[in-house]
């Protein structure tokens, strides 16, 4: 259904042009300086201290993690926060595979060795032969990869490692049915992160940074691992305890650490390879993330539908009425009855309705046969627990 108003999207960071072109020009204006935008689209810009206009209805993160967005504060205002899970999965998968090869073949150390060679070509050739013996590595087939977090990224990594001949084990107590269907049958589930640490030669993390995952790999868990294991972290800084991993490398317990999060503590260590947050840094991933977010924001602003929100439930309703109410509220008893009572008092017929909840929050779409008055909207907004009301 074509919108009768112009929506404004405020952007932070450089958003892929392919994504921005997904917004219909007839209905959308892109403005990085907007003060009264309907939605925000961003990548890594930190919003925690950023003032927020009352007009904002949604925030779209062109990526997976939302640590840079104050999600709880958005939820209190009824603002839907979207992300783009899986859009950057192939990019991260390829970097994790590269990270395993960098570690097991000592590629970074060997490259550093060759950059420091001196003398004529004959002397360099002789030194190369010596270096070849010094940096002997090992191959991936038959080794065990442990994947913590089997979302869109973790599943792709698990399947790719399985195709390379590795034994793959995974841990994810919240794995979705969709991810489970996509996971190779050769990948074995373990009951805990602790069990995975004991069995794996390589461990890769693909979980958000929350209280339960902070310093998930620490001195105690490292002590249970195989000698010579490799740790890879392209998920979030803080999941691995840097001090603990360095101590383990220095003692010979851990072979190497490959991650996307440099620090003064990590940089320069010969068995640590740090990259400047390259996990999703490909043109293709940036395009895919921006396209996904643009499509989700368009559908939300036009129709109120929600897909891939991190705070509200996914919900979709085909348009059947002249107007639609989109209501964000706390998940409380009698909410639907209270809304229906307001509409009934105004003699407004409900043609179709869908409601769903996610934790403490809920969301409702109601198709009605005519334009609700300002008083109807006001009365619904004043119901205890209602966070936002929008007429579409």
Overview in brief:
This protein has helices spanning 17-20, 71-76, 89-104, 107-115, 121-134, 152-163, 177-182, 193-199, 219-223, 242-251, 283-303, 335-345, 374-381; strands spanning 7-11, 28-30, 39-42, 58-61, 80-82, 144-148, 167-171, 188-189, 202-205, 229-233, 254-259, 272-274, 323-330, 350-358, 361-368, 386-391. By secondary structure, it is an alpha/beta fold.
Overview of the structural elements:
The chain is of the alpha/beta class and 392 residues long. It folds into 3 domains: 1-88 and 282-311, NAD(P)-binding Rossmann-like Domain (Rossmann fold); 89-274, Rossmann fold (3-Layer(aba) Sandwich), CATH 3.40.50; 317-392, 2-Layer Sandwich (Alpha-Beta Plaits). It contains 13 helices and 16 strands. The strands form 3 sheets. Strands 8-7-6-9-10-11-12 form a 7-stranded parallel sheet, with helices on both faces. It has a 5-stranded parallel sheet with strand order 2-1-3-4-5. Strands 14-15-13-16 form a 4-stranded antiparallel sheet, with helices on one face. Helix 1 (17-20) links the parallel strand 1 and strand 2 (28-30). The longest helix has 21 residues, at 283-303. The chain is elongated, with a radius of gyration of 25 Å. The model has no long low-confidence stretch (mean pLDDT 95).
